[in-house]
Amino acid sequence: MSNTLFDETVAILERLIAFPTVSSDGNLALITYAAKVLSDLGARLTISNDISGQKANLFASIGPDVPGGIVLSGHTDVVPVDPSEWTSDPFELREADGLYYGRGTCDMKGFIAAVLAILPDYAKLDLARPVHIALTYDEEVGCLGARQLADELRQGDVKPSVCIIGEPTMMRVIEGHKGCYEYTTCFHGTDGHGSEPDKGVNAIHYAAKFMNRLLVLGEELKKAPHAAGNRFSPPWTTVQVGRIEGGSARNVIARRCEVEWEMRPVRPEDGDWVKAELEQFCREELLPGMQAVFEEADITTEIIGEVEGLQVADRNEARDIVTALTGDRLCDVVAFGTEAGLFQSLGMSVVVCGPGSISQAHQPDEFISGEQLQACLNMLEGLKSYLVKAA
Ligand SMILES: [Zn+2]
Hints:
Blueprint: H1 5-18, H2 28-40, E1 44-49, E2 56-62, E3 70-75, E4 94-96, E5 99-101, H3 105-124, E6 131-136, H4 144-155, E7 162-165, E8 174-177, E9 180-188, H5 203-223, E10 238-246, E11 256-264, H6 268-293, E12 298-307, H7 317-326, E13 332-334, H8 340-344, E14 349-352, E15 367-369, H9 370-388
Parallel strand pairs: 3-6, 3-7, 7-14, 8-13
Antiparallel strand pairs: 1-2, 2-6, 4-5, 5-15, 9-11, 9-12, 10-11
The chain binds zinc ion.
């Protein structure tokens, strides 16, 4: 067994990488391993399965059973791999020139390994506040695990006050990101010959009106007063149609059309506004015309994911704590989504700060540098003074 904290972190990372926790395949073996590590330290554990029983969240607490304390949060799932694009086995940690390769090294098992490595040190301290470990499933497919955990925390007795999400930021302190809401809206019409368009309900035509309305809303959001002066790039809430599919031939009325669209709200009210406007538009402007011709015509919208944004707050204890530890006083905002907004909605102060670069995430030959792992360990070492200090 290695004796330095860094070596221990690498040894744990090797274990974590060997669990092929691709979102679709489940994470139970990793959760079982982490639960053993945590229960050996005397942590109070809650494991919650998803509906399928193939995936689980782990929430563990060390230290006094009192309100407050800090959550160290990471997702256990990784994105799929195409082994032919990798130099070596993606699920076997490989070191070369101070870089550690493997699927999830950067996003975000490096952070989890550092947390698990330092926990024995935390457990030996006379902690004045608890430290909570949140390991979630299915972040990469819509923060599903974190959503379940947030619901449980909302109803439960454990009330942490501060949260660090260890997504890869090169240890920069990130205090805000946009939300990411994704939808598929399906238009159900009825077919007929192209020469008699009024006898059918052309799903593509109604989808076009819908998309036009969405784009008009997008233009209004661009001009919204609150879009001026925030630090996002671009600073307004954006909308986008990414894919459409429908119809069978040029001279056939299209029976069905699917529109895959998204929005990236700078504040939740924008998302609610777009949804309400579109709902009203469909109900008042589109459906009556569709159903006048064909009673069963319909418009349905499936929510693919609604990942809340992380709102920049004037007061943010998490930001104060982490900037003091990392020396990164210039907090930033980023374009990628995390579970941070979910935790913020529980009343916690939240930042995103973790080792590795987001440009490595989801790539073949994903890696994390030893330097970044060490920088993360330094931050976690520094947290000790917060944890032993009376609240
Ligand atoms: Zn991630």
